[in-house]
Amino acid sequence: MEVIPNIHKVDGLRGSNAYLVSDQEGLILIDTGMPGNAQKIIDYVNSINRKPSEITRIVLTHCHMDHVGNVQELKGLTNAKVAIHREDAPFLTGEKSLPSPKGAVGVAFKAFSPFVKTKPVQPDILLEEGDRVGGMTVVHTPGHTPGSIALYDPEKKLIFIGDTMRYQNGKLTGPPEQFTPDMSEALRSIKKISLMEFDVMLSGHGDPLLPNASQMVKEFCNSLQI
Fold first, then answer.
1. Conformation bin of residue 31: beta by default, left when phi > 0, alpha when psi is -120 to 50
2. Total number of domains constituting the chain
3. Is the pLDDT of residue 117 over 80?
4. Which residues pair with 57 in a beta bridge?
5. Predicted pLDDT at 118
6. Which of 12, 119, 127, 144 pairs with 84 at a CA distance of 20 to 30 A?
7. Largest CA distance in the chain
8. 160 vs 19, 119, 135, 140, 141, CA distance in Å?
9. How far apart are CA 189 and CA 26, in angstroms?
10. Residue 216, pLDDT above cutoff 60
11. Is the full-model pTM beyond 0.70?
């Protein structure tokens, strides 16, 4: 679906959302979904009359499997450059392992993880706070992972938020606690985002939030008393 002109949410993915941004250099793919979704992304690109080779950059909001699951395959199919925040890069390359999720979810995760694995990928671009990707600025939003990021376009009044927040069934929430090692840091990241102005918020899970998205985020932040 085209959320606003030149911004698409890829239809039909399992596990999490992926987005396409069109600019003068081609297409930017933001996140890639769970493993097994690469062909769906390629099919969507074809459905909007673009070519997979036009994907020139793959930007990862963070290193969790449901966001990086198709990076290696898509990089091979498109020759796109892969970008991730410096703090999450070691998890993408396999140099470090993330802590297991908390509680019963962690037990289930350990049981199923041998059957759903992602192959290590060496990123081409290590992102930092304030870097630019297309017309978007990188905003470091740690907590959910050490290198979680948002991508902010002040001209389009648009922000890609990763898993820092999500909007689903008419409700705005923060990141899931069982998958967020540092919830205090995640709340500070929500506060950081609440100080920005945007009409459209696109998250890693759930639905697009628009219009007046930043006002809802401010109200949510106030409700948390951050």
1. left
2. 1
3. no
4. 28, 81
5. 75
6. 12
7. 46
8. 9, 25, 12, 12, 11
9. 30
10. yes
11. yes
Contact 179, 124 (CB under 8 A): no
pLDDT at 80 over 80: yes
* CA-CA-CA-CA torsion sign (176, 177, 180, 185): positive
Cross-sheet strand order for the sheet of 132-133: 132-133, 136-140, 149-153, 158-162, 200-203
Residues 15, 37: Cα–Cα separation, whole Å: 9
Are 180 and 144 in contact, with CB atoms under 8 Å apart?
A: yes
Residue with tokens 């840091």: 185
Place of tokens 């978007």: 136
| In the predicted structure, residue 29 carries a pLDDT above the cut 90 | yes
* Two tokens, residue 216: 């809802």
CB 173 within 8 A of CB 149: no
For 121-171, write each residue's pLDDT tens digit: 999 999 999 999 999 999 999 999 999 999 999 999 999 999 999 999 999
Q: Calculate the CA 209 to chain-centre distance.
A: 15
Domain extent for 153: 2-111+119-224
Q: What is the CATH number of the domain that holds 106?
A: 3.60.15.10
- DSSP character at residue 129: T
CB under 8 Å to 47, separation ≥6 — which residues?
none
